[in-house]
Amino acid sequence: MPSATAKHKILLVDDDAFVLDVMRQQLTQLGVTDVVAYQQADGAVDALKADLEAFDLVFCDLQMPGMDGIQFIRELAGIQYKGALVLVSGENTRILQTAKRLAQAQDLDILGTLDKPTSIKQLSEILQAPANPREFAKSRDARISASELEHAIESGQLVNHYQPKVAFQDGALVGVEALARWQHPTAGWIFPDRFIPVAEANGLMDQLTQTVLTTALGDTRKWLTRGLDLHVAINASMQCLSDLSFADRLFDSAQHFGAPLERLIIEVTETFLLDDRVAPADILTRLRLRKVGVSIDDFGTGHSTLTKLRDIPFNELKIDRGFVHGASRDPELGSIVRASLRLAEQLGIRTVAEGVEDADDWNFLLDAGCDLAQGYFIARPMPAGQLPAWLHEWNARPANSI
User: Fold this and answer.
1) Which residue from 339, 328, 259 is spatially nearest to 305, judged by alpha carbons?
2) Which residues pair with 296 in a beta bridge?
3) Which of 109, 147, 288, 319 is deepest in the core (most CB within 10 A)?
4) What stretches of 218-263 adopt beta strand conformation (E)?
5) Are strands 173-184 and 231-236 parallel, antiparallel or unpaired?
6) What pTM, to 2 d.p., does this model score?
7) Could you tell me the pLDDT band of residue 237, with boundaries at 50, 70 and 90?
8) What's the burial of 9, exposed, middle or buried (CB within 10 Å: 0-12/13-18/19+)?
9) What is the Cα–Cα distance from 66 to 15, expressed in whole angstroms?
10) Which strand ranges, in their side-by-side order, compose the sheet holding 84-89?
11) What pLDDT digit, counting tens, does each position of 114-172 carry?
């Protein structure tokens, strides 16, 4: 989102005429004069339907007669509004934050939230905030076929990028997570949000995972020869964890590349369903017996979490980014993060915070006692060859920069 001095066309939606007048005056003081206000949400929806690009920023109250703010969010998602949205309310903070997450779940770009009454300082901060980072450029129009993806896997178009994980206590690089990227010959980079669902729906996850694994093992061996002794995390789907041969194939691949098993971590998404409770437990327990790390990913987003912690020998817990980013400013998120860290500590499990996006996130997690950090504040995912140069720059940073 541009700064407050840039040209905006803003839509205000609030049933209180006085509130609208105050916000309009505050925006004028910030140099934004192209403002349209509606006291009825349905009128605002009609205006957007008439021209989806007419407004690049919408401020919407939650508590309104007729169409309320939640219904308005639903309408924005339905017409595929692509501008930014700011939610405004005098309601309980938890309600406001829930509404924010509801909007994000419907792929709306939430620039921020404001408590009533709004202040000019709050508005200025909102207008100067960058748009939410979206690594995955979603394109719903271009469809990927299973045969196209299979060809990409077999022809080496899938490559690994690696995102560093560093220790909170001293900033030391501890490991990386391997993330698949498709280097399409004509479409450019294609990110996992587009091809993973195709792989899952067409029985290609095992082949895709094996490709990521073998590439990661080869890169691990290269790093070892350069003195980089790192843990390398690889995501495993339930299709992989339903095949009892998965562990043996992993052991064989590691032996082939000369990569130490104790440097591998298999990340299992916390939303996986244990329809077959035996095979995943069999595979993951065998991995742990051979010193391969097993991490529960996206912790807090799935079901029967405690049951999974009981039944699977996890030795790492990754707190989902949806709880991490902004936890220093959101008491509810902060409480969830601290409770997760206490649980992991009591179980003797290492903790990783993913989605550490700024210094506030870093300082909060450091104070809360988290072990490792992963996120854009440290580094974006990068090709294997760029890791040594990034590490040199990271180690050369000023001591007080984090």
Assistant:
1) 339
2) 268, 317
3) 319
4) 231-236
5) parallel
6) 0.73
7) confident
8) middle
9) 10
10) 35-38, 10-13, 57-61, 84-89, 109-115
11) 888 888 888 888 887 654 444 333 434 457 899 999 999 999 999 999 999 999 999 99
Task: Please tell me the predicted confidence (pLDDT) of residue 400.
Answer: 65
Say if residue 117 is preceded by a cis peptide, omega within 30 of 0: yes
Q: Looking at residues 42-69, what average pLDDT do you find?
A: 92
> Residues with Cβ < 8 Å from 113, sequence gap 6 or more?
86, 87, 88, 89, 96, 97, 100
DSSP classification of residue 314: -
Phi, psi of 30 (to 5 degrees): -90, 5
User: What is residue 297's predicted lDDT score, i.e. its pLDDT?
Assistant: 87
Cross-strand partners of 266: 234, 294
Domains of the chain in sequence order: 10-128 (3.40.50.2300), 146-395 (3.20.20.450)
Q: Is 108 left (phi over 0), alpha (psi -120 to 50) or beta?
A: beta
Question: Which pLDDT belongs to residue 142?
Answer: 54
Structure tokens given for 306 = 């405690």
First to last CA, the chain: 25
